[in-house]
Amino acid sequence: MTLHHIELWVKDFDRSRASLGWMFERLGYVLKDSWRNGASWQGEGYYLVLESGPDVRGAHERRDAGLNHLAFSVASEREIDAITVESKDHGWQVMFADLHPHAGGPDHYGAYLENPEGFEVEIVVG
Questions:
Q1: Where are the domains positioned within the chain?
Q2: Interacting residues of 32 by C-beta distance below 8 A, sequence separation 6+
Q3: pLDDT for 102
Q4: Over the stretch 69-102, which tens digit does the pLDDT of each residue have?
Q5: Contact 9, 56 (CB under 8 A)
Q6: How high is the pLDDT of residue 28?
Q7: Per DSSP, what are the bridge partners of residue 111?
Q8: InterPro entries recorded for this chain (predicted)?
Q9: Does domain 5-53+68-125 bear CATH number 3.10.180.10?
């Protein structure tokens, strides 16, 4: 058994696509399908969906019950550094900047990034 897909409901699809869509593609996901208020990106074995519409209520708050963040692995610390720098041009900010890139502890090298809608993405070597 494996994960089939993850669907994120967003308040503003265009704004989310500019940050989350960019991140998905930067991490190797390929745009699979798009429609008026949504799109999907195919990864290895599963896909990611961003969708907005009249059923979406309120803004995302990662500290509420539910999804806190998505974590992705990359090949190297160098790639984490490159994504961190590039992400700023796409609306992302580094979380826990005073501890970056060891916000997960002294033996953990990663980036904790937050987009304008409050979605968090963690990038780790794996």
A1: 5-53+68-125
A2: 39, 40, 41, 42, 47
A3: 95
A4: 999 999 999 999 999 999 999 999 999 999 999 9
A5: yes
A6: 97
A7: 123
A8: Fosfomycin_Res_Enzymes, Glyas_Bleomycin-R_OHBP_Dase, VOC_core
A9: yes
